């Protein structure tokens, strides 16, 4: 390459880089403005009116608290202490269990530790899925099966913790020195012993540090899940907030308890992590300097060995004891006894099957065939499904596999293969039976007033003195594309496709393609349009919240960094602001913003933005304090202005941290947005909670769950991909 | 203990690292294996300890082919042939005495290992070994806080803790300065003399082998090209082993205290005449 070529290449690259930077700035600005505009219009209350009311709610709460007085507030807090302890127990038990699972799985999932590939590779995927799976869904599902209790929240948080910690732990494992393991192998140590002495001592400090960090996060997660019915302080908060005026003092008492405990746990955890980090550097803290006698030395070493044995026995014993306490505190025994696993079975079948009712009213003698027994999905008498036949007054229903039911006025006949013919006659006072000889099978119930048989999950026949009812189950989601009443109902995909291109309009007002789309979009059973709007809202919350947090957090971070802001007072102020934003926590922010701005993505976005301005600001300021001064000095020495020094001396250094952290938060905020939504901010989370609460059609719930998981996974993948692209890109070519 | 290695071979893909090696050890001896980097010395030693699986051949020890051992018997065999590594392979964050006691893991149950249980006898023996190697005063320091030479002595103490039948040392002095190299080689020699154990030691310098070993095995490109008493190792033979031309001189492979070069530099340096 000649010098001229090189020169033109460099010029070209510089231009391209400028264009990219400009483009990036434009895109971010466009997303921010459009996002704000869209969220604002989607929100039930507007931003500008909400802003005026922002302080109304906290002020109302505070004035009620003021009236209660200091002693009254202290009493309230004392009263709520058990709820707080329950939330803390959920967090600690979940972190312990999750940490345990993560340790085992991460050891088996790391390539250099000797686990076979067939185990390792699937395990990595399992960890990814566990990490990305929204906690809310697990918690709601378990609450449905187990009933209201702290255990569902504990399991949900523990599940996510296994995934999140497992990933971090395996990164630690990958970076260890494997030579000690080889040394132990050469002396005849077993695989377990090699891991125990060759790996654990190396990874323990980092593992513990991540464990403590996770504990901080889990306290918050447990409080939030309480709000959807998992017990603890969140449940209390929902109650006091639900009561509205008059319980403001209680709400404030709960807020204070939560903020103080989160603050304390954060402090404790960062103190612990700082100690761990400090210890790594040292190495000579214990040394036997002076030449003692041999016996003396033996005694000292024995004491050390005994102390260490005691410690290694004590730590798991304490953890085990704590879990036993949690077992009792959460009343797991009672919970197992009162659990309703059949609800899980119902949920499982109902979410992948639908049933068609054939119902005869014995008062009128009329027979109706309807999907899910719904009036809007009743078959016309001349268009019955092919497994129902009418012959005068006689209805012949084929349940498949040779099972057949005949309805003839007050008489019902069931052909049961392998058993015989069952005859049921409804009379004024009771049901009369004519059963085949031999023992009665256990799927059959014949009371004088109630007949019920369910030989298989897909067939059910019931009778009372008022009606006969036959359910035939079919696999799949009924009316998923088109509603029953739609002219498109029952068409095959090919028919729909050719119809879309046909010039003969079904609806003169719009083209066929538009009509088809409209029929799907407004399907009243599945509400595809509503669901997608809710998904969009959730994504908006995460995206907008994270963007605002990142771009507000960055400039503030300069004010909190010692090497950029000499003023101690200013630095102190900004740092406490970060602590406050983080410490108040997403849960409380959401509750305040829901009051001020109503339902909608704007509310969720603001809650995320407020909390994460604190978290990201803190992270960025730490990154800023670690920048290399020499680079800045170099730029300074060329006569650059302050702004230029920041742009070329500082920004290239912190950009990788900025991008990776912002993207990492985006990914975790997509999960948070579903939870905040469930608290009442709207979006897919709220929709999920509502369909679960009505629990009428589980296939709708499953549909929403599947979409939510897909969105969370997609955001996870997108953020991971972007992170790799951008950061590697920046390593290859400087900014 | 009779060790009979028969046509032991290791192939990595198409490359042959060790080609049909035949070695017999009938009485305790200090054996030095010499050769250039990549001659197959390490692979040979690692195959004996079974850290690297052999492609074919047999290693008969008192009549048993150790290449067929599995599970507990394999771990027992590894304990019998203690190994010392170029990079010491200690657990850096554990203290010295625990590192030494780890040599006893083979006799310990999983439960005892899980909870850091070591007996008084273990402690006494570990300290006795450290004392004999002159590093007992460091017993409670972390292994990573020690110098290279000290760490290698800890590794030797761990090897002795295994109560081995013989000792394999894979380039034990390649990462050490000449003074520490001498201390470590002296210690290995003493193990052979005092405890009557066979010590098989990979060295890539000729003079160390001459000085410490009774018997020298020379390897070149995976083949054993010399096997005999150190005195019989002529300069012509050494040229053959190191694959050098007429300009070869023993000084180029020296690590003795007299030469100004540290071991690594010395090996790569241009020949010094004289």
UniProtKB/TrEMBL annotation, chain A:
GO cellular component, one term: plasma membrane
Residues spanning the membrane: 20-38, 90-115, 136-159, 252-269, 310-330, 539-565, 586-610, 673-689, 701-722
Domain ABC transmembrane type-1: 84-269, 535-719
InterPro entries the UniProt entry points to: MetI-like, MetI-like_sf, PhnE/PtxC
Membrane topology, from the record: Multi-pass membrane protein
Protein name (Swiss-Prot/TrEMBL): Phosphonate transport system permease protein
PROSITE patterns for the chain: ABC_TM1
Subcellular location, record wording: Cell membrane
SUPFAM superfamilies: MetI-like (SSF161098)
Organism of this sequence: Albimonas pacifica
TrEMBL record, chain B:
Chain residue ranges for the region called Disordered: 253-274
Domain ABC transporter residues, every copy: 3-246
PROSITE patterns, per database record: ABC_TRANSPORTER_1, ABC_TRANSPORTER_2
Molecular functions (GO terms): ABC-type phosphonate transporter activity; ATP binding; ATP hydrolysis activity
Keyword terms, alphabetized: ATP-binding, Cell membrane, Membrane, Nucleotide-binding, Translocase, Transport
Stored SUPFAM superfamilies: P-loop containing nucleoside triphosphate hydrolases
CC terms in the record's Gene Ontology section: membrane
InterPro entries to which the protein is assigned, alphabetical: AAA+_ATPase (IPR003593), ABC_transporter-like_ATP-bd (IPR003439), ABC_transporter-like_CS (IPR017871), ABC_transpr_PhnC (IPR012693), MetN_ABC_transporter-like (IPR050086), P-loop_NTPase (IPR027417)
Name of the protein described by the UniProt record: Phosphonate transport system ATP-binding protein
Organism: Albimonas pacifica
Lineage per the UniProt record: Bacteria, Pseudomonadati, Pseudomonadota, Alphaproteobacteria, Rhodobacterales
């Amino acid at each position: 390459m000649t010098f001229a070529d090189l020169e033109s290449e460099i010029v070209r690259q510089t231009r391209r880089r400028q264009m990219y930077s400009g483009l990036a700035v434009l895109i971010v600005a466009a997303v921010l403005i459009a996002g704000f505009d869209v969220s604002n219009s989607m929100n039930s209350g507007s931003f500008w009116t909400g802003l005026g009311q922002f302080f109304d709610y906290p002020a109302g709460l505070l004035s009620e608290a003021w009236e209660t007085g200091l002693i009254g507030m202290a009493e309230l807090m004392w009263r709520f202490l058990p709820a707080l302890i329950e939330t803390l127990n959920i967090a600690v038990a979940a972190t312990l269990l999750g940490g345990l699972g993560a340790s085992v799985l991460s050891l088996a999932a790391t390539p250099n530790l000797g686990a076979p590939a067939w185990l390792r590779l699937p395990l990595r995927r399992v960890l990814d899925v566990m990490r990305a799976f929204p906690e809310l869904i697990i918690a709601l599902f378990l609450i449905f099966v187990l009933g209201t209790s702290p255990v569902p929240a504990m399991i949900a948080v523990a599940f996510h913790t296994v995934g999140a910690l497992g990933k971090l732990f395996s990164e630690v494992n990958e970076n260890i020195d494997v030579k000690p393991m080889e040394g132990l192998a050469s002396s005849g140590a077993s695989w377990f012993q090699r891991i125990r002495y060759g790996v654990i001592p190396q990874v323990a400090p980092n593992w513990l540090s991540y464990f403590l960090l996770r504990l901080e996060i889990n306290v918050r997660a447990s409080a939030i899940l309480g709000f959807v019915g998992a017990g603890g302080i969140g449940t209390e908060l929902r109650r006091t907030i639900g009561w509205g005026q008059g319980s403001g003092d209680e709400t404030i008492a709960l807020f204070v308890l939560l903020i103080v405990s989160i603050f304390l746990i954060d402090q404790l955890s960062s103190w612990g992590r700082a100690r761990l980090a400090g210890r790594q550097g040292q190495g000579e803290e214990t040394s036997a300097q002076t030449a003692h006698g041999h016996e003396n030395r033996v005694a000292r070493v024995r004491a050390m060995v005994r102390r260490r044995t005691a410690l290694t026995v004590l730590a798991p014993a304490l953890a085990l004891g704590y879990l036993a306490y949690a077992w009792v505190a959460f009343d797991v025994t009672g919970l197992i006894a009162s659990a309703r696993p059949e609800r899980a079975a119902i949920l499982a079948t109902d979410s992948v099957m639908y049933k068609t009712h054939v119902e005869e009213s014995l008062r009128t003698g009329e027979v109706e065939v309807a999907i899910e027994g719904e009036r809007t999905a009743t078959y016309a008498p001349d268009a019955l499904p092919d497994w129902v036949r009418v012959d005068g007054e006689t209805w012949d229903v084929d349940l498949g596999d040779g099972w057949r039911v005949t309805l003839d006025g007050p008489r019902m006949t069931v052909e049961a293969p392998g058993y015989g013919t069952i005859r049921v006659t409804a009379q004024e006072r009771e049901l009369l039976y004519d059963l085949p000889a031999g023992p009665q099978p256990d799927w059959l119930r014949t009371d004088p007033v109630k007949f019920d048989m369910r030989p298989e999950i897909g067939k059910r026949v019931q009778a009372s003195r008022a009606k006969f009812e036959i359910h035939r189950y079919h696999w799949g989601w009924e009316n998923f594309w088109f509603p029953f009443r739609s002219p498109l109902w029952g068409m095959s995909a090919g028919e729909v496709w050719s119809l879309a291109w046909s010039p003969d309009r079904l609806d003169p007002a719009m083209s066929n393609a538009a009509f088809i789309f409209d029929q799907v979009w407004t399907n009243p059973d599945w509400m595809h349009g509503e669901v997608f709007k809710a998904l969009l809202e959730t994504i908006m919350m995460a995206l907008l919240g994270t963007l605002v947090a990142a771009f507000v957090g960055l400039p503030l971070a300069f004010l909190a960094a010692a090497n950029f802001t000499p003023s101690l007072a200013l630095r102190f102020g900004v740092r406490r602001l970060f602590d406050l934003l983080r410490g108040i926590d997403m849960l409380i922010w959401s509750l305040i913003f829901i009051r001020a701005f109503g339902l909608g993505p704007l509310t969720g976005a603001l809650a995320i933005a407020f909390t994460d301005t604190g978290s990201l600001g803190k992270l960025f300021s730490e990154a800023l304090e670690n920048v290399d001064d020499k680079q800045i000095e170099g730029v300074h020495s060329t006569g650059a202005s302050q702004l230029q020094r920041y742009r070329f001396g500082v920004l290239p250094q912190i950009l990788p941290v900025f991008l990776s952290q912002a993207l990492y938060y985006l990914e975790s905020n997509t999960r948070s947005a579903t939870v905040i939504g469930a608290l009442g901010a709207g979006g897919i989370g709220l929709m999920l909670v509502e369909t679960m609460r009505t629990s009428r059609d589980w296939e709708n719930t499953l549909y929403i769950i599947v979409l939510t998981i897909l969105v969370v996974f997609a955001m996870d993948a997108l953020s991971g991909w972007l992170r790799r692209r951008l950061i590697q890109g920046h390593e290859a070519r400087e900014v | 203990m009779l060790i009979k290695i028969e046509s032991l071979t290791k192939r990595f893909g198409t490359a042959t690292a060790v080609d049909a090696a035949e070695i017999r050890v009938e009485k305790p001896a200090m054996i030095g294996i010499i050769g250039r980097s990549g001659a197959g010395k390490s692979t040979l030693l690692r195959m004996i300890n079974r850290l690297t699986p052999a492609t074919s051949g047999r290693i008969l020890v008192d009549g048993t082919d150790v290449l067929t051992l599995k599970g507990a018997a394999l771990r027992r065999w590894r304990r019998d042939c203690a190994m010392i590594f170029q990079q010491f392979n200690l657990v850096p964050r554990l203290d010295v005495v625990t590192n030494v006691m780890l040599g006893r893991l083979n006799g310990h149950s999983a439960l005892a290992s899980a909870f850091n249980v070591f007996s008084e006898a273990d402690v006494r023996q570990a300290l006795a070994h450290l004392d004999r190697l002159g590093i007992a005063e460091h017993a409670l320091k972390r292994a990573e806080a020690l110098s290279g030479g000290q760490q290698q002595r800890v590794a030797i103490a761990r090897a002795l803790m295994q109560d081995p039948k013989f000792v394999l040392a894979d380039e034990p002095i390649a990462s050490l300065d000449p003074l520490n190299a001498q201390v470590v080689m002296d210690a290995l020699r003493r193990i052979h003399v005092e405890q009557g154990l066979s010590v098989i030691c990979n060295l890539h310098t000729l003079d160390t082998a001459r000085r410490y070993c009774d018997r020298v095995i020379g390897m070149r490109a995976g083949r054993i090209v010399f096997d005999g008493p150190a005195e019989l190792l002529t300069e012509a033979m050494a040229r053959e082993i190191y694959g050098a031309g007429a300009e070869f001189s023993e000084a180029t492979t020296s690590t003795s205290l007299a030469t100004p070069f540290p071991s690594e530099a010395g090996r790569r340096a241009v020949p010094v005449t004289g």
